[in-house]
Amino acid sequence: MTRALDLTGKKFGRLTVIERTSNDKHGKTRWLCECECGNNVISYGSDLNRGKTKSCGCIQKIHGLSKHRLYNIFAMMKDRCYNPENISYPWYGGQGIKIYQLWLDDYTKFHEWALRNGYKDNLEIDRIDSSKDYSPENCRWVTRRVQNLNQRLRKDNTSGIRGVKWNQARRKWEVNISVNKKRIYLGLYEELEDAAEARRKAEEKYW
């Protein structure tokens, strides 16, 4: 019988071969492998070499979960943090915001955490401290209005009130609000109190 090729340490898809295990009753060689998600699985060497086995089964699980709204939330969260081409990257990845490594390595862990911690289809993921990472201890599920209120002030904000800044050219307070990623101009005001009230009413109307 031909001696089996040593696959120890080799990588096949998401699997890394740890060691050879006992042959089956037909003499076919089996290998113990560790998946990127942390699970172990035993696979035939022939299945590994032909690309038939590439994971412990988590790929199929993720594929099934990818149709869920949560997967889109996760994908957008990841894009904001790690894709410099994303329009929001300067306020996320550009500020050093990262995603909890276990979630980043295995989407199913994020999915399971979300379902155990208050996720509903009408809620958004929100960082309690907007200067810190996306992690179990710093994330919660909230309405869009609460999420918007928790966002950090823009660097060009001069009033301490979200959406209100001093327009130097016009010598007045300028008020804006973002709705569905579109910026809506709310006008110019002589007094900061009036500008703040305009912003508050806009939040009630749009959020």
Keywords:
single chain, 207 residues, alpha+beta, three-stranded antiparallel β-sheet, elongated
Strands, helices and their partners?
Blueprint (H helix, E strand, L loop, with lengths): L10 E2 L2 E7 L8 E6 L4 E5 H5 L8 H8 L3 H14 L18 H5 L1 H10 L7 E4 L11 E4 L1 H7 L13 E4 L4 E8 L2 E8 L2 H15 L1
Antiparallel strand pairs: 1-2, 2-3, 3-4, 5-6, 7-8, 8-9
Question: Can I get a quick summary?
Answer:
This protein is of the alpha+beta class and 207 residues long. The protein folds into 3 domains: 46 residues, no CATH class; 87 residues, no CATH class; 43 residues, no CATH class. Helices cover 31% and strands 23% of the residues.
Give a written overview of the molecule.
There is one protein chain. The protein is an alpha+beta fold. Helix content is 31%, strand content 23%. The protein has helices spanning 45-49, 58-65, 69-82, 101-105, 107-116, 144-150, 192-206; strands spanning 11-12, 15-21, 30-35, 40-44, 124-127, 139-142, 164-167, 172-179, 182-189. Strand 1 and strand 2 (15-21) form a beta hairpin.
Domain module count: 3
Class by alpha and beta content: alpha+beta
Strand order of the largest sheet: 1-2-3-4
Uncertain segments are none
Separation of the first and last Cα atoms:
72 Å
Q: Please outline the major beta sheet.
A: 4 strands, antiparallel
Output the number of helix runs. Answer: 7
Indicate the radius of gyration in whole angstroms: 25 Å
Share of helical residues: 25-40%
Percent of sequence in beta strands = 15-25%
- Apparent shape: elongated
How many E-type strands?
9
- The ordered H/E elements are EEEEHHHHHEEHEEEH
Mean pLDDT, all residues:
86
